[in-house]
Inverse folding.
């Protein structure tokens, strides 16, 4: 199958960047990234700079990969990272536009690679629990109800890929921040720092210049891990309560 | 012991706080400085305005019961000046806060993506939800016109104070005026279609079973509100109310 690609090419953070047109011969068994690998081999053979894109595990669990395909984060398939998207979902002659995540908080490093350190700083602001060091505590010392464990695990499925920010018309990191606040905030181990965590992580997201949520649901729709909008409601609830608790 | 609705809603068990039931001005400013704080203001004022729009419609529907009924209702509303101006002040403050906070959030959101996409496709979001920042100002402009039309009578062909029945019939017989009202009501319906459930999400109320029901309720409420409001100019134009 022959595809036409329009790819964002940007040499460096300071470069203006532009869309470049490529043609590539793919087969339906390839993953999307393998198709780009083929194109990059051809570019290298011609002495051109290959297209830079982030990737690591290529099995949909690390959160490294991701870019916009025809205006949709991670492409057209539900609950699928771009590495798990296969070329059988495309037809011969398709024209695809590949663009990096766009947000002030995610500056482009090169081509389709963006700097997502803003997410790391949100995690560092409160995405942890404090535990005593020394001998390991007994595994089941703190009982956790099944429902709670499931709710926490659903939120913890977030791989921090950034698709939620990319899909949001406001470039808001609410789904990501909400997932991290929920993941720890529902567990008994997360209670002591629950409200402080909400205040700190929300404040950090604001400082990183992410936008605000307008509840439209684009993030939930593109999330490869199907994180639900409920985590945003929970973040709001914890933030409101935390603001109330420190009302002096 | 002091108590407050806020404390009851957001704490599993309300402990009387040494600082009392209210936020200090500094804490309130800090809360408002956060995007979620501004969103809470938009949601709460939106809730108040939604309630007003509903009450306003119920009052207007009395036009179908004849001139005596609705004119008596207008008389009753204007009889108690304290209540009238109390309500007006709450509404004016709500409108001012709703607009200010929305504009501030919109400015923040615009700054969050300085370089846009060449290709963009919406996957899940509704047209109404993506255009709140446009339906809002248009409704705002309509409200100004509406006040000049039916409250001050400044742009009304034959305005009679405290005679809403006559004012409605005379006002809506003009086709362009009626059309403007219909268009404004459709936009209001769009705004509420998203806003009426969105405010709960903003305030942190979300439930896997009830939120889908709430969305359906918001859609039905918005449709009924539009239908109820639009029915008045249309029945006047058709001569069913005269």
């Amino acid at each position: 199958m022959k595809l036409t690609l329009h790819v964002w090419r940007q040499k460096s953070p300071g470069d203006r960047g532009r869309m470049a047109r490529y043609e590539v011969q793919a087969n339906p068994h390839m993953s999307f990234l393998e198709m780009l690998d083929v194109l990059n081999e051809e570019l290298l053979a011609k002495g051109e700079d290959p297209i830079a894109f982030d990737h690591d595990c290529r099995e949909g669990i690390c959160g490294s990969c991701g870019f916009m395909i025809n205006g949709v984060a991670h492409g057209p398939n539900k609950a699928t990272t771009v590495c798990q998207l296969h070329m059988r979902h495309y037809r011969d002659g398709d024209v695809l536009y590949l663009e990096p995540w766009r947000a002030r908080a995610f500056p482009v490093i090169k081509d389709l690679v963006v700097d997502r350190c803003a997410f790391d700083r949100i995690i560092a602001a409160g995405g942890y629990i404090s535990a005593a060091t020394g001998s390991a505590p007994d595994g089941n010392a703190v009982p956790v109800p099944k429902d709670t464990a499931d709710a926490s695990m659903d939120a913890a499925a977030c791989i921090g890929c950034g698709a939620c920010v990319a899909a949001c018309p406001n470039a808001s990191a609410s789904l990501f921040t909400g997932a991290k606040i929920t993941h720890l905030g529902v567990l008994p181990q997360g209670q002591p720092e629950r409200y402080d965590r909400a205040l700190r992580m929300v404040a950090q997201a604001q400082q990183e210049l992410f936008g605000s949520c307008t509840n439209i649901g684009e993030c939930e729709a593109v999330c490869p891990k199907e994180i639900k909008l409920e985590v945003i409601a929970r973040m709001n609830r914890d933030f409101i309560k935390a603001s109330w608790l420190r009302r002096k | 012991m002091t108590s407050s609705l806020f404390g009851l809603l957001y704490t599993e068990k309300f402990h009387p706080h040494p600082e009392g039931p209210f936020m200090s001005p500094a804490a309130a400013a800090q809360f408002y400085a956060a995007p979620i704080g501004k969103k809470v203001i938009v949601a709460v004022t939106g809730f108040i305005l939604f309630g007003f729009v509903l009450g306003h419609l119920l009052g207007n529907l009395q036009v179908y019961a004849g001139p005596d009924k609705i004119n008596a209702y207008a008389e009753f509303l204007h009889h108690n000046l304290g209540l009238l101006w109390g309500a007006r002040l709450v509404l004016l403050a709500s409108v001012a806060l709703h607009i200010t906070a929305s504009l501030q959030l919109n400015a923040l959101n615009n700054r969050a993506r300085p370089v846009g996409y060449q290709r963009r496709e919406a996957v899940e979001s509704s047209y109404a939800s993506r255009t709140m920042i446009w339906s809002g100002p248009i409704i705002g402009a309509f409200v100004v016109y509406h006040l000049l039309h039916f409250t001050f009578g400044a742009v009304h062909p034959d305005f009679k104070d405290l005679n809403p029945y006559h004012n409605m019939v005379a006002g809506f017989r003009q086709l362009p005026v009626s059309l403007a009202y219909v268009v404004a009501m459709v936009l209001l319906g769009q705004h509420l279609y998203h806003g009426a459930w969105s405010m709960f999400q903003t305030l942190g109320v979300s439930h896997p079973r009830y939120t889908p029901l709430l969305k359906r309720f918001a859609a039905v409420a918005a449709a009924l509100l539009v239908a109820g409001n639009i029915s008045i100019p249309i029945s006047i134009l058709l001569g069913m109310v005269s």
Chain A is about 35% helix and 10% strand. The first strand of chain A starts at residue 2 and ends at 9. Chain A has a mean pLDDT of 96.
